[in-house]
Design goal:
heterodimer; A: 368 residues; alpha+beta; Rossmann fold; 2 domains; six-stranded mixed beta sheet; five-stranded antiparallel beta sheet; 32% strand; globular; B: 412 residues; Phosphorylase Kinase, domain 1; Transferase(Phosphotransferase), domain 1; 4 domains
Chain lengths: 368, 412
């Protein structure tokens, strides 16, 4: 078992820094998800752990060992890929075992390890079947079996589900999560899909432009995003971001569309910004009609015209055109209200759930 | 639905095919039987005109990536199947199909079209027909050679296997072609870690391919899949070492340098660049070579400009193109993409220069040879003038001072 530690790690190609001084501790047995938009450096980070990318400067450790110069084969890590070919004439047992056979391991050891892996995967009864007789999910489990049978210290997953169709993808997310918990092997999982990140990781590291923007549990990232990037990257639909002026007495925030008072936790931070501007973040679920919530810790009104309606099932996402704001405001409504484009609506903003950011640094303001 | 075709020579007119349906839902009569290997994805073959095409079902982003990789590999002159087209948005503005049950959601599903490589066979078919050990050795040699070529070009395959290659006979030998680039990626610099990892994956995959044949009773009993997979690694390492190692020799051992070059040529590689540095106060010299495939420049020139020229002409023209690109980039204040520079060089430099030469003065010289002579003339004229006279003046001067006297004296 192993922890992973990045200590001021830099990866450059020529003059371009792809990873800019990464400090990150991944705990033993933890499921860490690296997430971020394309080109953020998440795959490079994973490949540095695997030893496929050389480290320009800084130190990377797996367990107690600095591995900067350790060959990929000697790092005791297993990469799990997007897809594996299953061999049609080989049984499930042979499909899982062939990597060990290749390493010339004694037959008794191979049998023992394959049986253990099959037990863990709940596939012991399928060991003598051929791939043709398996469902899509079972085939994916055989592929996982190939990786776990080696008993590595660390699993590295590089977007392993991106070539699967939606249904199987959701099924495999749960499967991988369960398996990781059962095996207790430190795992690092790369995805560009924030929903996948939120549903799978013990903790999530959000990367952007080669920098770590925040690391924390899914809820921490959702409830207290450290900066505007994380606030808008995590959560679907995106968090609304409205620039507002702070009154001279430091008590009120306002723009052409809305005026509100900061809740107690934000009062000190807002007061420090008297006469200047603040970026106020509001998640769509915190903007609702007054008959759709029981918020007792303060609300403010915002009115607009429905432009687009997206149905999610029991509720809908509405995009509102709000006078005085360039960006549309995204809110949620009960689907039974059947909003239509052109409807004029007045909504409540939940003041107890606001997020405040400095417009210049884009960092979250300190709460009381 | 959106059709993206790489070349007009593969123009598909048959829009009546059910492109918006998942391949598994097409009527089987639409397909043609072709010798094939095993595939992770659904792959089918159709004929169009005199050609046969492979259709592959993929998620859209994977298909787009593979299409891009295959085209880039082809542009760099590497042995790869030709990517012909990509069909996306298969759920938008498509006909409703009555009576179809269990229709698959086609959102974000794409079809990648590649041309079937004529005369090629997948390894399973070659082996199923009864393989001799020397034939299997030739296939492994071909695959090792393909992997080395890809690595020299900075390409990480990520899924080397017998299944992901096609084999074609080549003057008594076997040549391997890459057919699956889903996991591939180009790097400016392919680290040793990544290269060795790619080889490790190849080792594992090939063992799996062969063990599967063994399980099907198709591999001759005397052949051991593990030994054969190990031998691929040995073949790759021997070739890689020969192509990339530094060689140290004493000044009086110049013949070692020549014999190294001969060995490389015998292996089918050219030397693009050679660096010799002296060591130990001149008592020793170290030779480093950068090798490329034979006909590298010729293929590159053709890929960039469409010009079909000889190898040495291609080297000269590419050199001029590189200088032109450097000037363009400097004046634009940004790196001008090579394909953009190549197009502009072709239309703004090469063709106008050739057009300056009257037909009756050409005397049987082909365009590339004439351009080469104009470049030579420019170099000598610039040197004697003490300034760069530029391509226009060089062309004019070449006609007046070189071609006209030749023409007048009947010398060609």
């Amino acid at each position: 078992m192993a922890s992973i530690k990045f200590n001021n790690v830099v990866k450059s190609y020529g003059d371009v820094n792809i990873i800019k001084g990464l400090d990150l501790d991944i705990l033993d047995k933890e499921f860490m998800v690296l997430v971020g938009p394309s080109g953020c450096g998440k795959s490079t980070t994973l490949r540095m752990i695997a030893g496929l990318e050389e480290i320009t400067s800084g130190e990377l450790s797996i367990g107690d060992r600095v591995v900067n110069a350790v060959h990929p084969k000697d790092r005791d890590v297993a990469m799990v890929f997007q897809s594996y070919a299953l061999y049609p004439h080989m049984t499930v047992r042979e499909n899982i075992a062939f990597g060990l056979k290749l390493r010339k391991m004694p037959k008794e050891d191979i049998d023992r390890l394959v049986n253990e892996a099959a037990e863990t995967l709940g596939m012991a009864h399928l060991l003598d079947r051929k791939p043709k007789a398996l469902s899509g999910g079972q085939r994916q489990r055989v592929a996982l079996g190939r990786a776990i049978v080696r008993k590595p210290s660390v699993f590295l997953f590089d977007e392993p589900l991106s070539n699967l169709d939606a249904e199987l993808r959701v099924q495999m997310r749960a499967e991988i999560g369960k398996l990781q918990k059962r095996l207790g092997i430190t795992s690092v999982y790369v995805t560009h899909d924030q929903v996948e990140a939120m549903t799978m990781g013990d903790r999530i590291a959000v990367l952007h432009d080669g920098e770590l923007r925040q690391v924390g549990s899914p809820l921490e990232l959702y409830d207290t995003p450290a900066n505007i990037f994380v606030a808008q990257f995590i959560g679907t639909p995106n968090m609304n971001m409205i620039e507002m002026n702070v009154s001279d007495d430091g008590k009120t925030l306002s723009c052409d569309a809305v005026s509100l008072e900061a809740s107690a936790e934000w009062q000190a931070a807002v007061s420090e910004k008297k006469g200047s501007k603040i970026m106020v973040g509001i998640r769509p679920e915190h903007i609702r009609g007054d008959d759709e919530h029981e918020w007792t810790d303060g609300t403010a009104k915002i009115s607009g015209v429905v432009d687009i309606v997206e149905t999610l099932g029991h509720e809908v996402v509405v995009y509102l055109i709000v006078k005085g704001l360039e960006e549309k405001v995204i809110a949620k409504m009960d689907a039974h209200k059947s909003p239509k484009p052109g409807d004029e609506v007045v909504m409540d903003i939940h003041l107890g759930k606001l997020h405040m950011f400095d417009p210049e640094t884009e960092n979250r303001l300190a709460t009381a | 639905m959106k059709f993206q075709l790489a070349s007009p020579s593969h123009y598909f007119t048959d829009l009546s095919l059910p492109w918006s349906l998942h391949l598994s839902q097409w009527d089987e009569t639409k397909f043609v039987p072709v010798a094939r290997g095993i595939h992770r994805n659904v792959v089918k073959f159709i004929s169009n005109g005199a050609k046969v095409y492979a259709l592959k079902e993929l998620r859209e982003h994977v298909a787009e990536h593979e299409y891009k990789m295959l085209r880039e590999l082809e542009e760099r002159g590497l042995p790869v199947v030709e990517a012909v087209g990509l069909i996306t948005k298969r759920d938008e503005d498509v006909p409703f199909r009555e009576g179809l049950t269990g229709q698959i959601d086609m959102c974000e599903r794409a079809l990648l079209i590649t041309e079937f490589l004529e005369g090629s066979l997948p390894y399973r078919v070659i082996i199923e027909r009864g393989v001799k050990e020397y034939q299997l050795n030739m296939m492994l040699d071909a695959l090792a050679d393909l992997l080395v070529k890809l690595h020299l070009a900075g390409f990480y395959w990520g899924d080397t296997s017998l299944s992901n290659a096609l084999f074609r006979r080549d003057a008594g030998q076997m040549a391997a072609y890459l057919v699956d680039a889903e996991t591939g990626e180009f790097f400016d610099y392919l680290s040793d870690g990544r290269r060795e990892y790619d080889l490790d994956l190849a080792h594992t995959n090939i063992a799996g391919d062969l063990m599967d044949l063994q399980a099907a009773g198709l591999l001759p009993e005397e052949m051991d899949p593990v030994d054969l997979a190990d031998s691929l690694v040995d073949r790759y390492n021997t070739l890689w070492h020969e192509l990339t190692r530094d060689e140290t020799f004493a000044p009086e051992e110049q013949y070692l340098l020549e014999s190294r070059i001969r060995r490389l040529n015998k292996l089918g590689y050219d030397i693009e660049e050679m660096e010799i540095t002296t060591m130990d106060e001149g008592r020793k010299a170290r030779m480093q070579v950068k090798v490329v495939e034979p006909w590298h420049s010729r293929k590159r020139m053709q890929a960039l400009t469409g010009l079909s020229v000889q190898e040495n002409q291609a080297r000269r023209l590419l050199s001029d193109l590189h200088q032109y690109r450097a000037r363009l980039s400097e004046s634009a204040g940004m790196e001008v993409p090579e394909v953009v520079a190549a197009y502009r060089w072709l239309t703004e430099v090469y063709q106008p220069t050739i057009e300056k030469v009257p037909d009756e003065m050409r005397g049987g010289l082909d365009d590339a040879e004439m351009f080469h002579e104009i470049l030579e003339h420019r170099w000598y004229s610039s040197e004697s003038a003490g300034r760069d006279i530029g391509i226009d003046e060089a062309a004019h001067s070449y006609v007046e001072k070189v071609l006209k006297p030749r023409h007048n004296h009947g010398i060609f």
